[in-house]
Specification:
Order of helices and strands: EHHEEEEEEH
Radius of gyration: 16 Å
Structural class: alpha+beta
Shape: globular
Largest sheet: 7 strands, antiparallel
Helix content: 25-40%
Number of helices: 3
Number of strands: 7
């Protein structure tokens, strides 16, 4: 399954780039995240509760940054495992300046195995887009909050 998604942040690209790697910002941005830690540089592990139509399970996730080009590109390898099956994805994230802010484009190749394999692609694709959309809306809020808190701390 192929997924493509665009999100326009109301933030400069350098801020999005900086905070896109922050463990706390990411944990607070991931919908239904139960746990999320950076185990080594560019390697994250956690658990996410996913409830989409017939899919209802806790997934153990592993995210690895395979490649990055500061401040415009990430390649991620994502693995998610549950009783319902496994999800393997390679995702490319492109960040570019756009109208004084930042536009992020994701292109992902996803392979689903197990019980979830029989779920229609259009349902899985629609659900994946909704999760990604929520993630980046939350991420933008978390980045703004982190920037505000760091500026507030700097002033005091």
């Amino acid at each position: 399954m192929k997924i493509e998604y665009n999100h326009a942040f109301g933030l400069p690209r350098n801020l999005v780039w900086k905070w896109l790697k922050d463990e706390t910002v990411l944990k607070n941005s991931i919908p239904n995240c139960k746990s999320f830690v950076e185990t080594s540089s560019g390697v994250y592990r956690g658990e996410i509760d996913i409830r989409i139509g017939p899919i209802n399970d806790v997934f153990a996730i592993d995210i690895r940054r395979l490649e990055e080009k500061n401040p415009s590109f990430y390649r991620l390898k994502i693995t998610a495992k549950s009783k319902l099956g496994n999800i393997q994805a390679q995702s490319d994230l492109f960040l570019r300046d756009w109208q004084g802010a930042c536009k992020l484009t994701i292109k992902a190749d996803v392979v689903i195995t197990g019980t979830m394999e029989v779920t229609p692609d259009r349902l899985l694709n629609g659900a994946a887009i909704k999760v990604i959309e929520n993630l980046f809306q939350n991420l933008e809020k978390e980045i703004k909050k982190a920037v505000y808190q760091s500026r507030k701390k700097f002033r005091t």
